[in-house]
Every structure is written in structure tokens, then in C-alpha cells.
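Q&A FORM
Asked by: J.P.
Topic: structure of SHOCT domain-containing protein

PROVIDED:
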Amino acid sequence: MYRESSGDGFGGFFLVLVILSLLLYFVPSIVASKRDHPNKGAIYILNILAGWTFIGWVGALVWAMMNSGSQQSAQPVIHYSSANSESGGSIAEKIKEFKELLDSGTITQSEFDALKAKAINGD
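REPLIED BY: S.T.
REPLY: Here is the structure written out as C-alpha cells.
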């Protein structure tokens, strides 16, 4: 009795290998998409056209991993020293100013809390 092998074992392995290879190939594009990189379109094109070369793939991956200027928060650093407390308004005015910065989204809640504590403690 001779059974004809349908090759399903090898075919399934080959299919899994192809899928994993494609996922690995498109890792730079996936990273750029997940990070919502502003140049993700260019990264996709680089990945598709030059990703087959090791240098092109690594270049696309490095570019996708880089922080761009738009992703970095441009929050100002506010320093209040004793000179500021002598020359500028009351504690209530400072806290009001901090609250305005918080409401506008310029600073986070934790930054607001830290600034408020500094103003109250006179740091």
C-alpha cells in the first residue's frame, strides 16, 4: 500500500516561514507606524525598495526608531528662585499662572503639582 504524500507538512512549514520572513522584512514599517512617525511614508518606501539590502533595512529601522522634533515635547522649563518671589507677585498669582499653563497643556499635572509645591515652600 503506497500512500501519496500531499506535502502538507512541508507546505505548512513553508507558509509559516514566508509569513515570518515578511513580518521581519517589514519591521521598520511596522515600527514607524506604531510610533506614528511623521516620515512613515518615506520609511515605507525605503523599506520596500531598499529593505532587501541589509543596509537599506537597517537604515529604515534606525530612521523609524529615531525621535523626531515633533514627537519631543517642547515644554518649557520654569525655574522660580527666591529672586522671582521677591520681584514677582504673590503665591496665589504664581499658582494661577501655573494653572493657566496646565489648562493650556503646556505642563502636565505632575509638573503643576511640583511647581505649586515649590511656590508654597518658597523654593
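FOLLOW-UP: Residues 82-121 form one domain.
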